[in-house]
Structure prediction request, 166 residues.
Amino acid sequence: MNHFIFYLSILLISLCFKSCTTHLYFVRHAEKRNNTDTTSLSPLGQERAKALSELLIKASIDSIYATKYIRTQQTAQPLAHAIHKPIIIYNLDSLSEFSQKLVNQKGKNILVIGHSNTVPRMIQLLTGERVEIQDNDFDNLFIVSIYRFLKTEIKLSQKTYGAQTP
Prediction:
């Protein structure tokens, strides 16, 4: 009987740990055609958007957020289509409020697509850590993991995806 209680406790702790963990995936939009506000993705950017979808297809993404700009929405589109999730537009004028909303999503996996200036700002708001995205840098994937068990722990990790940018 003691073994049963022990294993049941371990199972409950592991289930709670999993359900109490939030993963926030941040990327800058993929390569764009030009430097205008209304530009779309270049062919290379479209390939990167597909690579992002292939990378996150099994990550159990619950929500996808992008800005009002077409290049962020096009970056999200392949994954959104593959997992049948809508792209939710977030407001660039209230990054603090949006970041707080993300923190409050318990046990979720969320993709956020932004810009070279907004992604670092949100990461700093969430983790206190500074990251930088250069103008010609499109391959970074930042993962903010929020563990909630006895206390809240926030961890930042970074990967790259798709074709390497200079």
User: Anything to note?
Assistant: The chain is about 40% helix and 25% strand. The radius of gyration is 17 Å. Residues 30 and 45 are 5 Å apart (CA to CA).
